[in-house]
Amino acid sequence: MSTATGGPSAPPPSANRSTGGAPRVGNSGWVTGMVLFAGVVMMVNGILEIFQGIMAIAEDDVFVKTPKYIFQFDLTGWGWIHLIIGVLVAVTGFGVIRGASWARIVGIFLASLSMISAFLSLPYYPLWSLVVVALDVFVIWALCIYRED
C-alpha cells in the first residue's frame, strides 16, 4: 500500500506481519484471569462434590428422596459417582491453574460431566444442583475462549 505521497504506509498496529496482515489472536488479561478463576472454581467444586459423595455414601439424611424420579439411583450409587467426578474435577482444576494445556480439554469434558450429574441429581439437592450447573457453564465458557499463545 502507499500513501498519497507515494511512500509505503505502515500496517495497522493490530496486524501481524507473519500472517500477512491478519489480526493477532491472543488472550487479553481478563481471559487469562477467567481461566485462572475457572481452575479455582473447578478445584472448589471438585472438593465439594467429594464431600457430597461422602455424604451420600454414608446415607446421610441431608438428601431428599424422591419416590417417582425417572433417573432414580441408589443414594450410595450417586455418592460414588459424585466422589469420582469430584476427584477428577479437583485434579483437573489444579492442572488448569498450573497452565497445562491437557487440563483445559479434560476440564471442558469433566465440567460437562459434572453438569450432567448435577442435573440428574436435581431432585435430591435442588438448589445446590442449580448452582453447580451455573458454575459448570462458566467453567466451560472460560476454558473454551482461552487460546494458546
TrEMBL record:
**Which InterPro entries does this chain map to?**
DUF7144
Q: Does the keyword Transmembrane helix apply?
A: yes
Domain DUF7144: from-to ranges: 34-147
User: According to the lineage, what is the superkingdom?
Assistant: Bacteria
Give UniProt keywords alphabetically.
Membrane, Transmembrane, Transmembrane helix
Which spans are transmembrane here? 34-58, 78-97, 102-121, 127-146
Residue ranges of the region described as Disordered: 1-23
This protein's record includes keyword Transmembrane = yes
Q: What is this protein called?
A: DUF7144 domain-containing protein
Organism expressing this protein natively: Kitasatospora terrestris
